[in-house]
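User: Just a sanity check before I run the rest of the batch. Below are the structure tokens for the first item. I only need the designed sequence back.
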């Protein structure tokens, strides 16, 4: 420490090369040494504590194992924020996946409660294991051959046509599609791999060289016309006899109106099977008046079969 220049006493001579300095203070030196020793001891104690392995206190016997596991998991996530974010995202995804089941369960509960306070409605005489047709054995006035449960209603297959929104207790369909005056009988086309249900039915020779295949899938009902090579597509003429209005919109879809309301078809798809898979063929609706309609097909290979797939919406 550099010497401190202080006011000199009057009884002590001072020269130019030796200024007067305060004598060392014994009390201050001992205090500084004491503080230094305390700091050294604190540093040694801290080093010894940090060197000990970390030991988590054991859970008390009365603590539930689930609480212990939750505490450990929370500790891991607190030390690793990425784990906490991943847990929150996983919980959110689980909630999103469970939400449809919760909604369906709530609707089923309300439906069950409603059925207990209302009269019992007769159901079609059929038993379906998943999507598929079933042979009808009920007492409907219509000559029903097959029925299939759709997502919102029942479709029935009769000779010469298909009935949409059909109910046995009502005895009629809200929408009826016919093949003109050709009462062709439907028959089983294919079974499921397990053989417990009918996956598709077929109307053979609805018109010469034209078969209609109606399929039941998990997504709903689809039907397609299969034209043999050389058959003119204009021979396919269908009708909605109960429709009061039938139009084709600018988007190419068909719009109908009957006593049950309005409906809109999907987009037409037509193709031919080739060496490289399906080859699309342009197709459009053609209105023929009186609720009748057909299909206009663009250029295609007449030496190969043609499939017209009108979607059912």
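Assistant: Here's the designed sequence for the first item:
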């Amino acid at each position: 420490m550099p010497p401190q220049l202080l006011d000199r006493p009057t009884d002590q001579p001072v020269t130019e090369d030796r200024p007067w300095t305060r004598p060392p203070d014994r009390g201050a030196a001992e205090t500084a040494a004491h503080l230094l020793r305390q700091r050294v001891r604190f540093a040694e104690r801290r080093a010894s504590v940090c060197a000990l392995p970390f030991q988590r206190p054991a859970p008390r016997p009365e603590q539930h194992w689930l609480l212990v596991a939750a505490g450990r998991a929370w500790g891991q996530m607190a030390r690793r924020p990425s784990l906490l974010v991943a847990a929150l995202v996983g919980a959110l995804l689980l909630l999103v996946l469970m939400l449809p089941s919760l909604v369906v369960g709530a609707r089923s509960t309300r439906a069950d409660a409603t059925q207990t306070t209302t009269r019992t409605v007769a159901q079609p005489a059929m038993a379906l294991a998943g999507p598929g047709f079933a042979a009808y054995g009920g007492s409907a006035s219509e000559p029903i051959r097959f029925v299939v449960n759709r997502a919102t209603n029942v479709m029935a297959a009769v000779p010469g046509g298909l009935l949409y929104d059909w109910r046995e207790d009502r005895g009629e369909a809200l929408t009826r599609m016919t093949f003109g005056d050709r009462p062709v009988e439907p028959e089983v086309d294919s079974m499921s791999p397990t053989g417990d249900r009918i996956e598709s039915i077929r109307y053979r020779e609805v018109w010469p060289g034209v078969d209609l295949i109606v399929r039941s899938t998990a997504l709903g009902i689809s039907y397609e016309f299969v034209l043999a090579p050389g058959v003119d597509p204009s021979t396919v003429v269908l009708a909605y006899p109960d429709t009061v209005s039938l139009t084709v919109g600018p988007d190419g879809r068909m719009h109908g109106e009957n006593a049950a309301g309005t409906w809109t078809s999907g987009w037409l798809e037509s193709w031919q099977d080739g060496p490289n898979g399906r080859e699309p063929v342009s197709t459009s609706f053609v209105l023929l008046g009186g609720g009748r309609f057909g299909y206009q097909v663009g250029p295609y290979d007449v030496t190969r079969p043609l499939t017209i797939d009108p979607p059912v919406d």
